[in-house]
Design goal:
The complex is a heterodimer of chains A (725) and B (176). Chain A is an alpha/beta fold. Chain A contains eleven helices and 39 strands. In chain A, 17% of the residues lie in helices and 27% in strands. In chain A, a hairpin with a 2-residue loop joins strand 14 and strand 15. Chain B has one domain. Chain B has 176 residues and is of the alpha+beta class. In chain B, strand 6 and strand 7 form a beta hairpin. Chain B contains two helices and eight strands, in the order H-E-H-E-E-E-E-E-E-E. Classes of the chains: A alpha/beta (725), B alpha+beta (176). At the A-B interface, helix 1, helix 7 and strand 39 of A face helix 1 and strand 2 of B.
Chain lengths: 725, 176
């Protein structure tokens, strides 16, 4: 058989075409598939990057909320402005920079965590990891061009109206506060509401510049009901955050900068019961249930325990709460935890927007900080003078009630043998400062207010007037207090303060304070008679009671007084009855205290001594009309009063039959105490507790700045809100 | 002597032809398999397109809105949402998001899955200060077959059903 090739082309050409065509087609399919995969990967990469940015932003904002109040407090503390090494960490630039570190925003997994996991030579492929080295590229002030200076991180909310969507600004006439507020989070009494703020507050800013009526923000933590009025001052700062700017050249992903407002609300304690303490509601220490108790509005406790069938309108807490099965909060009982996921949302759908039980930790970008100085609040000698502060208001002056009082009365000397007080020191505004010997035989200068009544050996009849008298000459006088009737000014009565000198007799209306033994003889007390203070201040040339509206009573155990710290009844932050070294524990008696209408702004008393309320307290309403914007409760417009003492007793000569309390209650006890404080427990002078049927309590919240007493407890609500553009 | 050496070309044996034929068939089969595989890849990517591309973008937009909101409410219809009536936590096509401005004023927006005549879509409405709702600002997605919002243990969930019946659920929480 003959075979011969007759094909014209090279052999295998068809195969070439077939293979190449198939290859090209397959390649096209693969390219198409690859493009699809790449597109999906690109989308998911961008989505992941943006999710990463969102989570970082949220973590950073939460960190700012945590850091800022701490820095604001430090800026008020002594020495905060003494050196840049101390003040620099308090600046906004450092706060923001620290928030980046605290939120772990720079890396998806920290080197410390890697080390703990034992992962060596880890290769991280998180596209969101970034050095974020320059905080000024992330945080910008609003309405100000950005550059890397202290004043270019946040816009201060004072003297500065940023327009729609932003809160109304505060004002200050203190240039230091105005300047520093752009660089630091400044909390200062210099920051007030002015005319620029009028449209955003509820009351006239001229009358109420310090605290005004604001709307409670829309947050889960229910110190008040969202949208309701509450009494506060709002400090705020605004900034823009752009987390993508640092790396947008690399990521090719830019974000729209977001505007935020960081606020620190200063909230005077205003609920019916408000205390940063471990409180127990519903039962007295005896185990009896509350009986005649009415509480309007919500209550706040640092940590709460609700016993029995107690009914409360709302309960807010910072550290947690324990509700009995029968407790009713906001009309609802909670057999299971009210904080279980979904309970709040279900309630809000079926019952209403305001969930009556809340914890501060339920709100992400919110921190609630009660300013609770504990027993230090009572004692002005426990605090050294503060200097070189960044803020114009120092921390102790801001947070210690004893230092906020306009007047002070101290025991500065005692008899070495009997331990009876022999000298007071009294101070009042504007510059009254004198020592008052309490018994004759102790020489002293003639305090203000004394007028000449007689010469040596002459008599003067004071009739029924109660007066303090002095006898002496040339700056050396002996004294007798609380005298009536006919008095002969001679050596026989007083002793001879200046031997060989012809002396004179003086008198003044009796001071509103004196030394009085408790009728039981249990202890010696300082007795205060507030109803006499107005006339006394006028007599000694002091400012009137609109300025001298508060008094602190302490034993001066420092070198300026007794020079013996054992006299301080506060030991390790707790009031104690037994003082070391057989030192007597003095007391404080409040008498002639039923009528405070001579105090136009109310009255406050602070003391670290056990206090006996010997008369009715604040039961006379003002006869004057209340401020135009204020509608007082039905029982009248009473002077706003506050009493801060570590231990209070009712009665003096004998145990009262019953006690009736109105107003607000608080406590300075610790949240961490092992046993709860029972705010409504009441003891008589003998130390016996009133039985439940003899305690009547009607508590209501403060709803207007006109109801704020001169000295209050303070709380801060810190939060960040976004201003939507 | 002249040797006339004539090269004789012989044919293929049956075995050779069989082997060649089998190899050709195997190559063809492999080629077909490759085609099928590539086509399958394309089908898979197309089927996953909603889950891998569209849904994450929807989630990003919605998460951004929800993350900024202070409160949410779920409703069965846009009318109920506008009226604020019958809020619920169960599966709902409409979610109202409330935002509080730092100056205390409130703003609201609505996410509504509905058919406005061009097929079902997830629309975004901004509630103006007048309260009168106008046209939606934009359609977040027109590819989803169904979108429902629900609240489960306090967490807002959004379940999206894709055109091929694929289901993906995203969860998020409010900021406050």
């Amino acid at each position: 058989m003959k075979t011969s090739s007759s094909r014209p082309g090279k052999p295998g050409f068809v195969s070439y075409v077939l293979v190449l065509t198939s290859g090209a087609f397959l390649t096209m399919l693969m390219v198409f598939t690859y493009r699809q995969a790449m597109a999906a990967q690109a989308v998911q990469s961008q989505v992941q990057l943006r999710n990463d940015y969102s989570e970082k932003e949220d973590a950073i904002l939460r960190s700012i909320v945590t850091i800022t109040p701490n820095r604001a407090i430090r800026a008020m503390q002594s020495g905060s402005g003494s050196a840049t090494a101390i003040s620099n960490p308090l600046r906004w630039r450092n706060i923001f920079d620290e928030s980046l570190a605290l939120s772990n925003a720079r890396t998806s997994i920290s080197p410390e965590l890697l080390a703990k996991l034992g992962v060596t030579n880890a290769k991280q492929g998180n596209s969101g990891d970034s050095s974020l080295a320059d905080a000024y590229r992330i945080f910008h002030p609003i309405g100000v061009s950005n550059n890397n200076t202290d004043a270019r991180f946040a816009t201060s909310g004072i003297n500065n109206d940023l327009g729609t969507g932003f809160p109304v600004p505060l004002k200050t006439e203190n240039s230091q506060t105005s300047l520093r507020d752009t660089a630091y989070p400044i909390i200062s009494n210099d920051k007030l509401y002015g005319t620029q703020a009028q449209s955003g507050v509820g009351l006239d800013v001229t009358t109420y510049p310090k605290f005004n009526l604001l709307k409670y923000p829309q947050i889960n933590f229910g110190y008040a009901k969202p949208g309701d009025d509450f009494v506060a001052k709002r400090n705020w700062w605004a900034f823009t955050m752009d987390l993508s700017d640092h790396d947008d050249d690399t990521t090719k992903s830019a974000k729209v900068p977001r505007d935020f407002v960081l606020s620190i609300y200063e909230i005077p304690s205003q609920l019916a019961i408000s205390a940063s303490s471990f409180l127990s509601f519903g039962e007295y220490a005896s185990g009896e249930a509350w009986q005649n108790v009415t509480i309007q509005g919500g209550v706040y406790a640092g940590k709460a325990e609700v016993e029995g069938e107690t009914a409360l309108n709302a309960l807010a807490s910072r550290r947690g709460m324990d509700l009995s099965d029968d407790a009713v909060i906001g009309g609802k009982s909670f057999a299971n935890s009210p904080f279980a996921p979904g309970v709040r949302e279900a309630y809000q759908v079926t019952e209403g927007e305001f969930f009556p039980v809340s914890l501060a930790s339920e709100s992400g970008r919110v921190a609630f900080i009660p300013i609770n100085r504990g027993a230090d609040f009572f004692d002005r000698f426990a605090h050294a003078a503060e200097t070189n502060t960044v803020s114009t208001t120092t921390w102790n002056n801001y947070s210690v009630g004893a230092l906020q009082c306009a007047m002070s009365l101290d025991i500065t000397s005692i008899d070495a043998t009997t331990k009876q007080p022999t000298e007071f020191r009294f101070r009042a505004q504007p510059n009254i400062d004198f020592r008052q010997p309490l018994v004759t035989g102790i020489p002293g200068l003639l305090p203000p207010g004394y007028v000449l009544r007689a010469q040596e050996n002459e008599s003067y009849n004071f009739g029924s007037d109660v007066v303090d008298i002095a006898y002496g000459k040339n700056g050396v006088f002996y004294f007798q207090l609380g005298v009536t009737g006919n008095v002969t000014f001679n050596n026989a009565r007083f002793g001879d303060p200046v031997v060989g000198t012809f002396k004179s007799g003086y008198s003044r209306p009796s001071a509103p304070f004196k030394i009085t033994p408790l009728p039981s003889g249990e202890r010696t007390c300082v007795e205060i008679m507030p109803q006499r203070i107005a006339a006394f201040l006028q007599n000694i040339g002091a400012s009137n009671t609109s300025i001298n509206h508060s008094i602190v009573v302490n034993v001066d155990y420092t070198t300026s007084g007794l020079n013996n710290p054992n006299f301080n009844p506060i030991k390790n932050g707790q009031y104690v009855e037994i003082l070391p070294g057989n030192i007597p524990n003095y007391g404080l008696i409040l008498r002639e205290c039923s009528d405070f209408t001579t105090f136009p702004k109310g009255f406050s008393l602070v003391s670290n001594l056990r206090t006996y309320i010997g008369d009715d307290f604040n039961v006379v309403a003002y006869s004057t009309a209340p401020p135009a914007s204020y509608v007082p409760p039905a029982d009248g417009y009473f002077p706003p009063c506050s009493v801060f003492v570590p231990d209070k007793r009712y009665g003096l000569e004998m145990d009262p039959y019953a006690v009736n309390v109105k107003g607000q209650m608080g406590s300075l006890a610790s949240e961490d105490a092992a046993n709860p404080t029972r705010p409504l427990d009441s003891k008589a002078v003998s130390g016996n507790a009133f039985s439940a049927d003899r305690i009547t309590v009607n508590l209501r919240p403060i709803t207007h700045p006109a109801e704020l007493p001169p000295v209050t407890m303070m709380n801060w609500l810190v939060m960040i809100e976004e201003r939507r553009q | 002597m002249k040797s006339n050496h004539h090269t004789k070309r012989r044919g293929f044996t049956l075995i050779e032809l069989s082997v060649a034929l089998m190899m050709g068939m195997m190559t063809g089969a492999m080629l077909l398999a490759l085609f099928n595989q590539q086509l399958a890849f394309i089908k898979i990517y197309r089927a996953q397109d909603f889950l891998s591309v569209e849904a994450p973008v929807i989630s990003t937009y919605v998460s951004k809105l929800v993350g900024k909101a202070d409160r949410f409410r779920l409703h069965a219809s846009l009318d109920e949402a506008k009226a604020g009536s019958n809020p619920r936590l169960t599966a709902s096509p409409v979610a109202v998001l409330n935002f509080r401005q730092p100056d205390g004023t409130m703003r609201a927006s609505i996410l509504s899955f509905e058919d406005l005549g061009d097929g079902p879509a997830l629309y975004y409405y901004v509630v103006p200060t007048s309260g009168v709702l106008g046209d939606p600002e934009w359609a977040i997605t027109t590819k989803a077959k169904d979108v429902v919002f629900s609240a489960d243990q306090g967490v807002l969930r959004m379940s999206i059903t894709g055109p091929a019946g694929e289901l993906i659920t995203y969860s998020g929480t409010m900021q406050q």
